[in-house]
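User: Could you go from structure to sequence for me? I need the amino acid at each position, not a summary. Structure tokens:
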């Protein structure tokens, strides 16, 4: 028998079409899982190369269907690529050009699918003519006038695009950003719907043995986990300051560091070059440095991990909260700076590392000091009934809009 929650959204069909970067795709996957559990039908569009990874994170609900989209040929863009994680910044720019060529394909899909609502986060100039109603899903919070203006400027790239938006959907909630959400609605002249912070479900797989064995050597909440995601990269000089700061704390740590995919050599070799002289030998008993993908949620959930140093991507921040990890924030670009100000300022739930005003660089002392201060988590994120209520309310609002 279908649950009451499921029947409440059974007539809704939405299309998800996030920008082809996993920092954008992941929140759409999380939202798809939440909506499907409330009876909403999901059609998820992405490039073929992303489908296996997306499938591994989506629920097995029959209401979710992944639909591959073809990436048009562009001079200089190798065939078979469809995700910025595999690209240099120059190639990622060419992917945007390819996206501009996708109008006929997307239009045909939408005609066939007949969704009630389309969710996007990377507005193309041709969308107004093919999609209505259209929801723009923002995967970042709005903390201040500066962030509001940034969002407005993004929309101003096409006023036409602004007129096509039925409303804005934000990955946020009143508990986190209440004073700013009304302002966003006013400045756009559009309703604002909230998904809540989309706390992910606990992973069902187990932590790899090498990490489990290493982590269990240390007391509860004593290990620092440091990671900046798969698409944020530190310069060599900042890597040196980071690892020296971790060393200076005297705490055990795991640091995950990645490099721009440019075909220019092995990442492990690049990592060794970036290390300070003698660093690896000095920390060999209490420090691990890794390049590549790791089981981030499972590492954060381990009893030994107590602090998370990250780039302030909102999904990473939420994962820290739900695992009761202290947050030390080193934003690198875009909305990460706004997220960091929200968490360290309004929420008082983390510490932002001090940097110089001229270049935005930090040094080992700045990082070490921040690690030894730390902050507090937000308890409301750990209460499942509150998370469920965000989605229940959101589905009800969508039904009201399409009816």
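Assistant: Here is the amino acid at each position, in order:
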């Amino acid at each position: 028998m279908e649950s009451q929650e499921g029947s409440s959204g059974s007539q809704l069909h939405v299309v998800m079409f996030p920008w082809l970067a996993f920092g954008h795709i992941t929140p759409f996957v999380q939202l798809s899982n939440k909506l499907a559990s409330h009876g909403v039908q999901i059609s998820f569009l992405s490039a073929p190369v992303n489908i296996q990874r997306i499938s591994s994170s989506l629920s097995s609900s029959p209401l979710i269907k992944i639909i591959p989209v073809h990436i048009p040929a562009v001079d200089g863009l190798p065939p078979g690529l469809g995700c910025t994680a595999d690209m240099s910044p120059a190639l990622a720019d060419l992917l945007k050009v390819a996206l501009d060529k996708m109008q006929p394909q997307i239009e045909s899909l939408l005609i066939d699918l007949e969704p009630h609502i389309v969710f996007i986060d990377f507005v193309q100039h041709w969308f107004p003519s093919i999609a209505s109603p259209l929801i723009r899903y923002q995967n970042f919070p709005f903390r201040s006038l500066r962030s509001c203006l940034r969002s407005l400027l993004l929309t101003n790239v096409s006023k036409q695009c602004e007129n096509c938006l039925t409303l804005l959907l934000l990955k946020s909630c009143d508990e986190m950003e209440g004073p700013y959400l009304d302002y966003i609605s006013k400045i756009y002249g559009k309703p604002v719907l909230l998904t809540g912070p989309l706390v992910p479900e606990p992973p069902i797989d187990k932590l790899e043995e090498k990490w489990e064995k290493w982590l269990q050597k240390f007391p509860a909440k004593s290990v620092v986990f440091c990671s900046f995601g798969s698409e944020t990269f530190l310069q060599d000089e900042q890597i040196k300051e980071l690892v020296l700061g971790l060393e200076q704390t005297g705490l055990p740590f795991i640091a995950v560091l990645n490099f721009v995919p440019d075909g220019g050599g092995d990442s492990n070799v690049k990592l060794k070059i970036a290390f300070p002289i003698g660093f690896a030998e000095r920390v060999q008993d209490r420090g691990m440095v890794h390049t590549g993908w790791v089981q981030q949620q499972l590492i954060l959930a381990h009893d030994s991990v107590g602090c998370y140093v990250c780039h302030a991507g909102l999904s990473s921040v939420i994962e820290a909260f739900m695992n009761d990890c202290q947050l030390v924030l080193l934003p690198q670009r875009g909305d990460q700076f706004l997220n960091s100000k929200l968490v360290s300022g309004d929420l008082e739930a983390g510490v932002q590392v001090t940097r110089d005003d001229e270049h935005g660089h930090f040094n080992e002392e700045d990082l070490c000091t921040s690690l030894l201060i730390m902050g507090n988590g937000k308890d409301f994120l750990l209460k499942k009934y509150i998370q469920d209520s965000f989605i229940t309310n959101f589905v009800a609002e969508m039904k009201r809009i399409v009816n």
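One structural detail worth keeping in mind: Residues 384-402 form the longest helix (19 residues).
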